[in-house]
From TrEMBL:
Signal peptide: 1-23
This protein's record includes keyword Transmembrane: no
Reverse transcriptase domain location: 1-164
Name assigned to this protein: Reverse transcriptase domain-containing protein
Pfam family, one: RVT_1
Keywords (A to Z) from UniProt: Signal
Source species taxonomy: Eukaryota, Viridiplantae, Streptophyta, Embryophyta, Tracheophyta
Keyword Secreted: no
Length: 310
C-alpha cells in the first residue's frame, strides 16, 4: 500500500522497521509467555499509527472509487446533477452508500474482503448498522441484513452525539437533551449553592449541553421553552416539588448585565445564531460537499434560509 502511494523504498523500509521491530508477550496466569513479532497491523497508542491508518484508508477509498467508475457498486444520488456519494469517512468510521439489492451487497462484500486481506482490518459487525429507504421492502431488508450479519439502525440512535435521522417528530428525536439537563440540575438541587453559584452552573454547564446540537439542528420551540423552565426553576432555588416565586421574567433575566439582566442565553435566539454561523461557513466554502451534492442548483442565500427554517 505504501509503495502504491508513491513512497520511496527507503521510506517504506523505515516504516516497516517501526512495525516489525516491536514484540508482544501474552500474560498467562500473571506470567509473560511467548514472543510475538508482528508483521502487519497498527498498535494503539503508537504515535505513528494514525499516519499508517490514513494510508490504509486510502486503499479503501481507491477500491470504492474504482468500482464507482465501473458502475459495479452504485452510490447514492441526492438529486439530479451532483456526483453520487459512495463513501463518507470520519476518523475510523466509514459510511458506505449503495443500492439495496443482494447482488450489489455481495459485490461490496468481495471488495471489502480484499481490503481486509490487504490491511488486516476487519468490519466490526457489532458496531455496524444499516439504514434503508422507506421504499425497500421488509423482506429485502432482512435478506440484506442476514447477508452482512448486522442489525438495522434505530431512528433515535446517536452518532457523534447527534441523531443521524430526525424523522417527523423532532420532540422525540431530541428528547434526550431535556433529560440530560434535568438529570444535571437534579444532581445539583440538593447542594447548597448561592444565587451566584447557580448562575455560574447554568451558564457553564446547563446551557452548554444543547449548544452542540443547536449548531446543527433547529430545535422545536417547545423544547427550548421546557429547557428554559428547568433552568429558571433551578436558578430561583426550587427543590423537587417545592415552588419558588420567580421574581423576574426569564426574558428579563436573559438581558445583558448592562441592562439589568444576568446574561443568560435565550435558547431560541441562540439556536438561530448558531445555524446562521453554519450558513456563513457555507457562503465562504463554496466547494464543500454539502453544496456539491445536496443543493447544486440552489443559490447560497437560499441555502442559508433553508438552514434557518429547517
Amino acid at each position: 500500500m505504501i509503495r502504491r502511494l508513491g513512497f520511496h523504498s527507503k521510506v517504506v523500509q523505515l516504516l516497516m522497521m517501526c512495525v516489525k521491530s516491536a514484540s508482544f508477550s501474552v500474560l498467562i496466569n500473571d506470567t509473560p509467555t511467548g514472543h510475538i513479532v508482528p508483521t502487519r497491523g497498527l498498535r494503539q497508542g503508537d504515535s505513528l499509527s494514525p499516519y499508517l491508518f490514513l494510508m490504509c484508508i486510502e486503499g479503501q477509498v481507491s477500491l470504492l472509487k474504482d468500482v464507482a467508475v465501473s458502475q459495479v457498486v452504485t452510490g447514492l444520488q441526492i438529486c439530479r446533477g451532483p456526483p453520487r456519494l459512495n463513501l463518507l469517512l470520519f476518523a475510523d468510521d466509514s459510511v458506505i452508500f449503495c443500492v439495496a439489492d443482494v447482488d450489489t451487497n455481495r459485490r461490496l462484500q468481495v471488495l471489502l474482503k480484499q481490503y481486509e486481506d490487504a490491511s488486516g482490518q476487519q468490519i466490526n459487525k457489532e458496531k455496524t448498522s444499516m439504514v434503508f429507504s422507506r421504499n425497500v421492502s421488509e423482506d429485502k431488508q432482512k435478506e440484506i441484513m442476514d447477508l452482512w450479519g448486522s442489525t438495522q439502525g434505530h431512528q433515535y440512535e446517536r452518532y457523534l452525539g447527534l441523531p443521524p435521522m430526525v424523522g417527523k417528530s423532532k420532540n422525540h428525536a431530541f428528547a434526550d437533551i431535556k433529560h440530560k439537563v434535568w438529570l444535571k440540575l437534579q444532581s445539583w438541587k440538593e447542594s447548597m449553592f448561592s444565587q451566584g453559584g447557580r448562575e455560574i452552573l447554568i451558564k457553564a454547564i446547563a446551557l452548554a449541553i444543547p449548544s452542540y446540537t443547536m449548531s446543527c439542528f433547529k430545535l422545536p420551540s417547545k423544547l427550548c421553552t421546557d429547557l428554559e423552565k428547568l433552568m429558571a426553576r433551578f436558578g430561583w432555588g426550587q427543590k423537587q416539588e417545592e415552588r419558588k416565586v420567580h421574581w423576574v421574567n426569564w426574558t428579563k433575566v436573559c438581558d445583558s448585565k448592562y441592562y439589568g439582566g444576568l446574561g443568560f442565553k435565550e435558547l431560541g435566539n441562540f439556536n438561530m445564531a448558531s445555524l446562521a454561523k453554519q450558513g456563513c461557513r457555507l457562503l465562504q466554502d463554496k466547494e464543500s460537499l454539502f453544496i456539491k451534492s445536496i443543493v447544486p442548483n440552489t443559490s447560497l442565500k437560499e441555502i442559508c434560509w433553508m438552514l434557518l427554517l429547517v
